[in-house]
Give the backbone structure.
Amino acid sequence: MTRAEFPLLSGFLYEAIFIPEGAAPPPRTVLLSPPLRDYVAGFGSRRDDRALVAEAAGRVVGAVWVRCGAGFGRVAEGVPELAVALDPACRGRGVGTRLLRAMLRSLADEGYPAVSLSVQKANPAVRLYRRLGFRVVREHPEEYVMVCVLA
């Protein structure tokens, strides 16, 4: 991801919000809440900020990014938390899997011991994360915190 593309992360963060079937999507202003804002505010300014994108037909259709902070899936100092999202029209085509695998390889190559994420239990992406080696380390009533050990 180029620095010029960093502003796209807000839109992808909105797409990363799991909306159960039949539920109304939240207003975009939800991105202004401190817990969500931390995933994208000032992206690129922290030492551990990393992002990759998927492109199709000359436009960015997906993103995966990590940063160390105080997000919902934080597990330990030095373990970045991951977020991933795709344009809805690109879901179910393996794009997210390729993005995630590329990020996991990159983080392992850079010496990170692990990466974490939070995901709603009802989100079908839980199956993908399990296939890629993520394991539940903490459970809340509606979400999992998962970790993939990289070393």
Notes: The chain has one domain: 3-149. The mean pLDDT is 93. The first helix runs from residue 8 to 16.
